[in-house]
Write a structure and sequence with these properties.
This protein is mostly helical. The protein has 2 domains: 203 residues, MFS general substrate transporter like domains (Growth Hormone, Chain: A), CATH 1.20.1250.20; 269 residues, Growth Hormone, Chain: A. It is built from 19 helices and no strands. Helix 2 packs across helix 3 and helix 6 packs antiparallel against helix 7.
């Protein structure tokens, strides 16, 4: 996210199809690499943590490290691009990730894996900006809005693609296969951006020494907030005092960063502008929509994995999601209107609400085929929303100047990354709590004196008739199997509650956004009527 729509030397006077296809291909490569870099590891944590000998809460640090660096490095990345050029930042970011990845393949432990994920978050910031710039360069100057919509959409292809390629990579080299593939893509990206360079733009001094003071307060503050959100549901929110201290430290650091910025003539983050009513509403909508979109990764795929499905068995669902995401990217790029950016967002929210309500009727017999329509709708909706959210605030930053672009990028990036992490934390916590409630309710009804329960236990214990001769042991095994089935049913019911919550939340956000749309339209009509009256 940069000054991609600002007048510059980036778009040549004579645009050609050859030029557009070349830069468009590089944009797709960069966007897909960024999306795979985020999702390859996150979608395969159970297999990676087994290879590294890590517990679930320990493997969660991999996601936290990526999110923390990705959410904060944008604060300096845009200024670096204005002063030194984005290609140098891309070379540094991608080079850091390649070196860290190769080092991790040699050391093979959790700490080095966390360092690689942190480096990957830095590289992803450069990749996201380059994806936008190359896509804007690939389209004629009058189609820059389309370029922005396509550029921000390519990375979304990484979620379904990561599940399609993961199985082969894991079979080939276990977790090494994932990292080698990610490193290989980064090497190709590094070659591509150096072989096909963006036209140069004027550079100017941007950095001040207080920028680094702000970053030194802001980055660890956001990082600690990511730690709280990422670890809370694993070590449980109220059972680990160190989570509370992390939250206190995060609040203190962020408050200190705000105080520093408010007393600067040329702040790094224009807080007074960012805290205007329109931008705060935009931030709230971005955060809520990212929480809603967590239904797909944590909800649908989490349910199917609980039911024993793996990536191979969910390949059909991933293909549906890939096609729906691509269709959504193309549709929003062809139809988006900068004056009516709320329209695709409203459609996206309705689609998510309908799909989540559909999924809330899942059972233990649900299979990927039953989720093709609902998950396709959510994938399509996600592709509609992101360009709309970007265009809702980016033109305002362009009009205000380059320094305001930095502030908006921080708002957009932090909203995206923290919203995704917060969504997983919220829905994951809700799922755990509802599973406990349903488990208690089911166990209360499983009375040994109930003839149906006794019959079911005898049926389950019959599986051990050929191996266990002791009736008491067989009965105990039957009770254990019945308990497992009860836990499975409680988990499915908990996922249904999560889906229903997402549906309700999507409807509430839709109503709020529709209210804002109607209010804005009424104000514009009143202003137009007043102008006509004055003219008359």
């Amino acid at each position: 996210m940069t000054d991609a729509t600002a007048p510059s030397q980036a778009t040549p006077a004579a645009w050609t199809w050859r030029h557009g296809l070349a830069y468009g291909a590089v944009s797709v490569l960069l966007g897909v690499t960024q999306g795979l870099g985020l999702n390859l590891v996150n979608n395969n944590l159970p297999w990676i943590q087994g290879s590294l000998g890590a517990y679930t809460n320990e493997s969660a640090w991999l996601s936290i490290a990526y999110t923390a660096t990705n959410a904060t490095i944008a604060l300096l990345a845009v200024k670096f691009r204005f002063q030194y050029g984005l290609r140098l930042f891309a070379d540094i970011g991608l080079g850091l990730f390649i070196v860290a990845g190769l080092a991790h393949l040699l050391t093979n432990d959790l700490r080095s894996a966390i360092a690689v994920r942190a480096a990957s978050g830095v590289a992803a910031t450069a990749l996201s900006t380059l994806t936008l710039l190359y896509m804007v360069e690939a389209v004629p100057i009058e189609r820059r809005v389309m370029g922005l919509a396509l550029g921000i959409g390519w990375s979304q292809l990484g979620l379904p693609l990561s599940r399609l390629v993961s199985s082969n990579l894991l079979d080939t080299g276990q977790w090494h296969g994932l990292y080698l593939f990610e490193i290989g893509l980064s090497v190709v990206c590094l070659a591509a951006v150096n072989l096909l360079r963006l036209p140069p733009v004027p550079r100017q001094p941007m950095f001040q020494w207080r920028d680094f003071l702000t970053f030194a307060l802001f980055a660890p503050g956001i990082g600690l907030l990511c730690v709280v959100l990422g670890q809370g549901r694993y070590v449980w929110w109220f059972d680990s005092p160190w989570l509370g201290w992390c939250l206190v430290a995060a609040i203190g650091l962020l408050v200190a960063a705000v105080l520093v910025e408010l007393h600067r003539d040329k702040p790094l983050i224009h807080l007074r502008w960012l805290t205007s009513a329109d931008l705060l509403r935009l931030l709230a909508i971005i955060l809520l929509f990212r929480i809603v979109l967590s239904e797909q990764g944590l909800g649908a795929f989490g349910l199917l994995q609980t039911l024993g499905m793996n990536n191979d068995q969910m390949a059909g669902l991933s293909w549906v999601m890939l096609g729906a995401t691509l269709a959504g990217i193309v549709v929003v790029a062809l139809t988006i209107n900068p004056e009516r950016v709320s329209t695709p967002a409203l459609i996206a929210l309705l689609m998510v609400a309908a799909a989540a309500w559909w999924d809330s009727h899942s059972t233990s017999l649900t299979r990927p085929e039953q989720m093709y329509v609902s998950q396709g709708m959510i994938a399509f909706a996600g592709a509609l929303f992101l360009p709309a959210a970007l265009l809702a605030g980016f033109p305002r930053a362009i009009r205000m100047g380059q320094e305001y672009i930095i502030s908006f990028i921080v708002l957009f990036s932090a909203g995206q990354t923290l919203g995704a992490l917060g969504g997983s934390a919220f829905l994951g916590t809700l799922m755990i709590m509802r599973e406990r409630v349903h488990s208690a309710a089911i166990v209360d009804r499983l009375l040994a004196t109930d003839p149906q329960v006794a019959l079911r236990m005898r049926q389950l214990s019959g599986a051990y008739a050929g191996t266990l001769t002791d009736p008491a042991l067989r009965s105990g095994e039957g009770a254990a199997l019945l308990s497992q089935q009860a836990t499975l049913q409680a988990t499915v019911l908990a996922y249904d509650d999560v889906f229903a919550t997402v549906a309700v939340l999507a409807v509430l956000v839709f109503i709020y956004l529709l209210f804002l749309r109607v209010r804005t339209d009424l104000r514009l009509r009143r202003a137009a009527a007043a102008a006509r009256a004055e003219t008359a």
